[in-house]
Each structure stands twice: as structure tokens, then as C-alpha cells.
Specification:
- This protein is α/β, with parallel strands linked by helices.
- It folds into two domains: about 15-250, Rossmann fold (3-Layer(aba) Sandwich), CATH 3.40.50; about 255-315.
- It is built from ten helices and 13 strands.
- The strands form three sheets. It has a six-stranded mixed beta sheet, with helices on both faces. A four-stranded antiparallel beta sheet has the order 11-12-10-13, with helices on one face. Strands 2-1-4 form a three-stranded antiparallel beta sheet.
- The protein is globular, with a radius of gyration of 24 Å.
- The protein starts with 13 loop residues before the first strand and ends in an 18-residue tail after the last helix.
- Bound molecules: adenosine-5'-triphosphate (ATP).
- Adenosine-5'-triphosphate binds near residues 25, 63 and 69.
Length: about 350
């Protein structure tokens, strides 16, 4: 579940706005020995959403869904084929340089740091590139060094850093110029548990303390669970969910599990309305029931007729739910125009 925490001030004014945004790539494929045919790939197929200032939003989807393409359009690297896109009121493709000062970007699979330079020299170059005022630079660097444990790494050339160290270095580099928006594309990919925890708590702090708006792309759903109240799911270039995680669970028709320990081994529990026994292991039995239903009446029904010793309720495995969502199982696939941009 999303941990209870102080929430940043989310203002109504949208910082990121997309209206029917499309990106179509034309690719040539071999068709025989000499012939090549042209094909269109609709990487982003009419996406609309708004992200208010101060929000941290998850942007997830299977491989090839269109996440990176969206982020590249939001940075101005790619020009949309259609629709309207604004970040802090700026059209990224038209005014990329002006936008650069207001956004920070971390692509987990690639570094923006200088491979042969010590980390601190990379930061110095970032300072000059963005013309960050001295006092701002010093304060931001000190904060990142402290919270991301960078002190022992500052004199180490980037190529000698481990993946987790490099990622922390990259995240700091993206924040030295005080961006209003931070795009993170797989910031925890390949990191060990400790590094992931460090990165997550830092991002939470940046979002809550600074009010930095964050768009987070990840395959690790724990990132989403721990950081985002709102999650958007993209599939085949279309938005198929925009809301909270609970809504995503419900959309995927997920089931929760009531695990009961009986006083002794018994045949599978029967006759509990709204639940079915899916597993029996000695005196322990597993009963599946709809994610949206309350467990209380089930517990009462079991306790009434069986020698109940202990129980627990397990949340559905979100990854399984999302796999189901992608497969179309139970998910109400909405057209982009149907999505409530103000969700959650
Ligand atoms: N430059 C390009 N030329 C042609 N097709 C492209 C290009 N970039 C992306 N695509 C295609 O667009 C679709 C969306 O790709 P994109 O990289 O945005 O997906 P993604 O959701 O970020 O996937 P992943 O999780 O694997 O990174 C894919 O079918 C991809 O092959």
C-alpha cells in the first residue's frame, strides 16, 4: 500500500498537458531481396492527460507500449505527429532550450554524466551548462550529497561507479538546476534493494519538500506503490487506466485471498458466499474473493462453522493484475478521450 506520508501541495494548475498526442514512426522493412516496404508504427496513439504541479505520477505499461516515446516528446527530443502538448506552458518541440532549464530527466538505462570525469567535475559542467547561480548550486549539491550518500563518490570517475551509485549520481545531476518537473525513466532498474530504498526515499523527499512534479516510468510496481497515488497505464500507445492503484486493482477484476488456519486438517471449506477455496495445505486453507468485497462477512461465515485459529488477508499481486489488464482480462479498456484527466 502507499505509505502514509505528508503529501506535497498539489495545485490545480496543470504543469503537464497532453491533448490527443500522437507519435507515428515510419519504418522500412525488407520484403524480399531488394524490396523494402514502408510501415507505420503508432507508438503513441492519441493520449490525453493533465498532471498538476506537485504531483508524482506513475506511468507504466508493457515493453513497447509507448512510455519512452511519450517522455521523449515531453522533453522535446521527439516532435509529436499530432495533438497538443505543453510543459509549464511551453511547447517542448518548439522551445526545447527554454524548456531544458525547467525540467530534469533521468534515463535509467543511459547516463547523462561524463564517463571519464569524476562525479564532481560532471556536476561542475552541469552547473555551467545551466548557468546555475553559485548559492543555488552549492545548496542543491550539498542536499543531494547528503541524502543520496554521494560524498565518498565525488572523486570517482563515473565509469568506475556501480549501477546503483551511478544512478544516484544521475538523479543528483538532474536536480542541480532546480527543475520544476522531473521525468524518470526506470530510475531503479537493476538496483539492489538498498539502493532502491535510497532512491525512493530521496524522490519522496524531493516531491514533498520541493513540490517537484514527477513523472515516473518503471517496471517495478513497488516504486509505484511506495511513491505514487496516481498511476497511468499505457498499452499499445493508448491510456487504459488513469487513477489510483486501488482502481487499477478493481479494473483488473483482482481477487484478494483470505488465508485461514483451522484447528486441524479438514476438507476444503464450502458454503462461504462470495468465496471459493483455491488451496488446502494441512490445516491452512486459501479462499479467493473479489478485491472490492469486504473480508469481514467471510471471516464471520468461516468462524461460525469451522474451528478457526488464525487468519490473514492477502492483497492481490499487482503484477499479476496488470498482466491481466494487459491481456484485456476484465479491464474496461477506455478510449483516450474517456479518461478523466483530473483523476484520481
Ligand atoms: N525511433 C523509432 N523508430 C521506429 N519505431 C520506434 C522508434 N522508437 C520507438 N519505436 C516503436 O514505438 C513503440 C513504442 O516504443 P517505446 O520505446 O516508447 O515503448 P516503451 O513503453 O518505452 O517500452 P520499454 O518498456 O520496452 O522501454 C515500439 O513499438 C517501438 O518499437
Amino acid at each position: 500500500m502507499v505509505p502514509k506520508r505528508e503529501l506535497p501541495v498539489v495545485s490545480g494548475d496543470p504543469l503537464i498537458e497532453l491533448d490527443g498526442v500522437e507519435k507515428v514512426f515510419t519504418v522500412r522493412r525488407r520484403a524480399g531481396r531488394l524490396r523494402r516496404t514502408k510501415h507505420e508504427v503508432r507508438a503513441v496513439d492519441g493520449i490525453s492527460f493533465r498532471v498538476p504541479r506537485g504531483e508524482m505520477v506513475g506511468y507504466i505499461g508493457p515493453n513497447g507500449a509507448g512510455k519512452s516515446t511519450t517522455i521523449k516528446m515531453l522533453t522535446g527530443i521527439l516532435v509529436p505527429s499530432g495533438g497538443r502538448l505543453r510543459v509549464a506552458g511551453i511547447d517542448p518541440a518548439r522551445e526545447r532550450t527554454r524548456l531544458t532549464r525547467r525540467i530534469g530527466v533521468v534515463f535509467g538505462q543511459r547516463t547523462t554524466l561524463w564517463w571519464d570525469l569524476p562525479l564532481k567535475d560532471s556536476y561542475e559542467l552541469v552547473r555551467r551548462m545551466y548557468r546555475v547561480p553559485d548559492a543555488v548550486y552549492r545548496a542543491n549539491l550539498a542536499r543531494c550529497v547528503e541524502l543520496l550518500d554521494l560524498a565518498p563518490l565525488l572523486d570517482v570517475p563515473v565509469r568506475q561507479l556501480s549501477l546503483g551509485q551511478r544512478m544516484r549520481g544521475d538523479i543528483a545531476a538532474a536536480l542541480l538546476h532546480d527543475p520544476e518537473v522531473l521525468y524518470l525513466d526506470e530510475p531503479t532498474i537493476g538496483l539492489d534493494v538498498v539502493s532502491k530504498a535510497k532512491v525512493r526515499s530521496f524522490l519522496r523527499e524531493v516531491n514533498t519538500e520541493r513540490g517537484t512534479t514527477v513523472l515516473l516510468t518503471t517496471h517495478d510496481l513497488t516504486d509505484i506503490e511506495q511513491l505514487c497515488r496516481r498511476v497511468m497505464v499505457i498499452d499499445h500507445g493508448r491510456l487504459v487506466h488513469d487513477g489510483d492503484l486501488a482502481g487499477l486493482r478493481a479494473a483488473a477484476d483482482g481477487e484478494r485471498m483470505l488465508v485461514v488456519d483451522l484447528a486441524r486438517e479438514l476438507p476444503p471449506i464450502e458454503g462461504v458466499p462470495g468465496a471459493r477455496t483455491v488451496k488446502v495445505e494441512g490445516p491452512r486453507q486459501w479462499l479467493a474473493f473479489p478485491a472490492t468485497a469486504s473480508a469481514a462477512p467471510l471471516v464471520a461465515a468461516v468462524a461460525d462453522r469451522y474451528p478457526l485459529v488464525d487468519l490473514s488477508v492477502r492483497e492481490p499481486d499487482i503484477e499479476a493484475l496488470i498482466a491481466e489488464l494487459y491481456a484485456g482480462g476484465g479491464a474496461a479498456r477506455r478510449k483516450p478521450g474517456d479518461v478523466d484527466p483530473g483523476a484520481p
